[in-house]
Amino acid sequence: MASAVKYEVFSENLAEGVHNLDTGTIKLVLTNSAPNASTHATLSDVTQISNGNGYTTGGEDTQNATSRSGGTTTVTAVDVVWTASGSMGPFRYVVAYNDTPTSPADPLIEYWDYGSSITLASGETFTADFGASGLMTIA
Questions:
Q1: Helix (H) or strand (E) holding 113
Q2: How far apart are alpha carbons 126 and 95 in whole angstroms?
Q3: Rounded to whole angstroms, how far apart are CA atoms 130 and 80?
């Protein structure tokens, strides 16, 4: 997976108790519009790709959970796979947000830049692969 970029508002939201990264529903959405880490704060700031052909507006659940070892907490997630049922995209960025809070609603967490736009043909898949490092590590 590409390197994660944290939205600046995430640290404030975390300190203010907006996020419960163990029980909150963290979802991934796809966009082809460049995220702005310093000014974007909620999902409403993100222009998602069109609904359909294998993509559902609002994104997919990462089934996140947390685990701690000493003073380091890892937020784990399952890989999210999109399968195109027609032309899907283009998209370049995968954005993570928390679907649980209501104030603010749908706060942004981080995004990944894949370097260039991706369009899937029918039957092709795209996987957001978190590997052993999980969604994030907080030390």
A1: strand 108-120
A2: 14
A3: 9
